[in-house]
Design a protein that fits this description.
The chain is built from nine helices and 13 strands. The chain is an alpha+beta fold and 281 residues long. A six-stranded mixed beta sheet has the order 1-5-10-7-8-13, covered by helices on one side. It has a five-stranded antiparallel beta sheet with strand order 4-11-6-9-12, with helices on one face.
């Protein structure tokens, strides 16, 4: 991978980048157009600058996916990272905010709940296979007659499947450790140890460890590692090389970063992105 042309790699995950445009996201209209009511409508746009959407909810189910960048979505006490090869299903009525990197192709498809024959009741990572992407691109056309649209929609319903990897970062939501989470979200490279955090917060290491386990299911070290991998996915998708990403996220050397990435994702950064690109091609 080569260094991105977009400038310096920034460490923060949910810290707003300079130049970010903040947009309100109006509720989309029901996909009723043309010859009859649509079950699915689809389209895409390319944000020219980093873009943030304020917290909002839709009356329709929404499926979003990206090419050439990443999308992060903040849903309650979880942060989802959407990268190439995967999408995110957002059920109707669920409040969420989002951020897309500059220049990413941002695709979305809206599903009418009363015409969708399945229900994912929670946000879900969706495997964006070439067939699914092609069908949704086909449904973005405005010249399809009702029978052609109905045929394509029925195949979408048949092939859409949750991804084998449901990749979300659980936020603690615990006043004993929220200060740690906020600091690391702002700078995942923060290398303060458990002992240093305990001293700073006036708590025991055991209390902090127990709080992280209870709130997130992970130890402090595992949670920080997971956060760093989320941020790494964003930076790598923007084109930054492994060395730059490892330095940005506080690793002493690239090999340490690669080991941590493999521990979370099951493969190296290079192999992971080669696979993601192959799936979506």
């Amino acid at each position: 991978m080569v260094r991105s042309s977009c400038g310096e790699a920034m460490p923060g995950m949910w810290r707003r980048e300079a130049g970010t445009v903040v947009r309100r996201a109006p509720a989309p209209e029901r996909p009723d157009q043309g010859a009859g009511p649509f079950a699915i409508s689809a389209g895409f746009r390319i944000p020219r600058v980093p873009t943030e959407w304020e917290p909002h909810a839709h009356p329709l189910h929404e499926l979003v996916w990206v090419r050439g960048g990443t999308l992060t979505s903040h849903v309650g006490d979880r942060i989802f990272t959407v990268f190439e090869g995967n999408g995110l299903w957002m059920p109707a009525g669920v409040v969420h905010g989002g951020r897309a990197t500059a220049g990413a192709e941002f695709h979305d498809a809206l599903f009418a709940p009363d015409r969708t024959p399945f229900a994912f009741e929670e946000p879900k990572a969706i495997e964006m296979t070439p067939l699914l992407e092609s069908l949704l691109a086909h449904l973005s056309r405005t010249d399809l007659d009702a029978p052609a649209r109905a045929r394509a929609e029925s195949v979408v319903f048949d092939v859409i499947q949750p991804s084998a990897r449901q990749f979300a970062l659980q936020l603690p939501g615990d006043p004993r450790i929220d200060a740690i989470a906020e600091a690391l979200l702002g700078d995942p490279a923060d290398g303060r140890s458990l002992e240093e955090w305990a001293r700073l917060l006036g708590a025991s290491e055991r209390t902090i460890t127990r709080a992280f386990r209870q709130a997130t299911g992970l130890s402090f070290a595992q949670w920080r590692q997971m956060l760093r991998v989320h941020r790494a996915l964003m930076l790598l998708s923007e084109g930054f090389d492994v060395m730059t990403v490892s330095e940005t996220l506080g690793y002493a050397q690239p090999s340490s970063f690669i080991v941590a990435f493999r521990r979370v994702m099951g493969t190296t950064p290079g192999a992971f992105f080669d696979t993601a690109t192959a799936i979506s091609s």
